[in-house]
Predict the structure.
Amino acid sequence: MIVAKIEGVEKVIKALNDNTVLPAEVLKLDVVGSQFVIGGSREMYGEDLIVNGRFEEGVLGWSLGDGWAIPAETADCDGTVGGSVYQDVGAIEGRNYLIEGLSLNYISGILQVGGSVNFLSVSADGLFYYVRQWTSDPILYLRSNDTQGFLGSIDNISVREVL
C-alpha cells in the first residue's frame, strides 16, 4: 500500500480544489504496498462508495458515454472528446472525499477526475488521488477532456469520505 500522510489537511484540500501547486514539504509520502491513503490510516475515511471499481463485473454500476468501453477489467477510452464513464456515488454536497485510481496504457490526452467544475487532470500512467469537496451533483465523472481527448485506461477506482 502507498500511504500519503498530509500535514495541514485544510491547506492541502483547498490547494487541490484550486488546482494550486503545493511545495514538496507540505506532502509527506510513505510507501507500503499498492494504494494511496491520505492521512495516517484507513480509519480516517468512510467506506468505499464505488460499485465495481476494478471493473471485474463489466459495466455493473457504471454508465458509459461516447468513446468508453469496459472490455476486460479496465475502463478504456478511445480518445473521443467529452465522453465520460460515471457512477452515482451518493456523495453529499460540501463534504470532502478522496478519489483514488490508476491510469494505465496512457497514450495521449487528459482525463478529468471529479466533476465538471472541480476536477483533477490526469495525463500519464500511474496512481492518482484527489481530495474533492463535493458539489451538488452526487455523481463521480471520469471524463475525456473536451479538447484533448483521453486515450488510455483506468482501473481501481475508489471514492471514500474524508472523516
